[in-house]
Write the structure tokens for this entry.
Amino acid sequence: MRARPHRLAVAALSVAALAACSRPTGELPAGTAGGAPVVLISIDTLRSDRLPAYGYRNVETPAIDGLRRDAVLFERAYSHMPLTLPSHASIFTGLLPPEHGVRDNIGYRVEGDLPYLPRLLKQAGYATGGAVSAFVLRADTGMASGFDFYDAEVQSLTWTGQLTAQRAGAETLELARGWLASLADERFFLFFHIYEPHTPRRPPKRFAERFADPYDGEVAAADEIVGDLLAELRRRGLYDKALIVLLSDHGEGLEDHGEDEHGVLLYRESLQVPLIVKLPGGRGGGSTRGDVAGLADITPTVLHLLGLDVPDGLAGRALFAEQPAEPPPVYAETLYPRLHFGWSELTSLIDYPHHLIRGPDPELYDLEADPAERDNLIRRQQRLAAAMSQRLAGYDRPFESPAEADPEVARQLAALGYIGAVAAAADDEGPLADPKERVHVLQELRGAFSHMSRGEYRQ
């Protein structure tokens, strides 16, 4: 027997409603999250491809998986620089490194005349708090601007008797809990930064025993800390109401191209990061966005969702606003090899699926067909490479030499693995070495630093 017309109509509407629920969340009107508490979770040095939410299977991250089920996942999000301070400057200003001027972890600061998310939210009536886990984001870098509360006091003694410039995420969480308990209302912005899985990779024993790779163990430890924060938000009745952004500032080399850590090279493993956005009420939960995003998109996205004015001239775009027909490519750079070792700087452009890396020996990769970036297409795709190179040149801007580093600052950054004195001025001329040909030197230097820290001077 044929269904009656009105039953067909109801069935069609039901199917349409289910499809609408399962579709990726696209354009949302300004103010969709108006007045919501905002929590930005930054997990330092976390590669997206080392999370189960992005398809990895060798670690378990139940907290991040649970957040992902309530959130929109961006599967192609990228950093603009594989260094902590410049990357967070882009996150909070909506600008690229050549625009905000923070080109390294040392010798630069976030200036007070820049658009800055914590300051903008404070002006809009939000209480603002930050709890961070690494010296590199200390207050005198300008990162504390606009925060009512900002704790980056991370110095502590290691078993060797040396100072370390980071603290465990669990300690940072206690600071965040204390600040949340002090709030009078729910209009707040919390910046929560943890340093797991940055080197040294020494996961707690229970994770070291479960996971053979120390990086995986540190990721699991980071997930546990995130889970404790989310549980605190639930306990306070804030989780469902909140706009929560979980991301990383950059990835990690893990020897994919000869670099174990980050800062020197610009391959995908150092640039691609997780980006998970939970809207109030879990709107769009479980959906995935395939369009390309950059970390400079975070500030305009948060402002748009809260219904606040987005400053003019930002490089970033609001990811839930109306999108351009052709989204802009993602620019990235690293001056770390030039400033610290006298090697060439690198710049890159991701116009998905293509990734152009400009240096002494340029490279072009197809990220869709070759995500490991092993097949350099530069000679087979010369026309495409020339067009992308011309577009990349539009981002060029002279950089100022860093301010002279305080010896104590340099020492503490070295304790975090950022070795090498500031060696090259901005006006250096002449051919410079290709970083990918010299990156092996870093392993020798780190070995020397390790011996020195243990007093093994002969070695």
Q: What stands out?
A: The chain is about 30% helix and 15% strand.
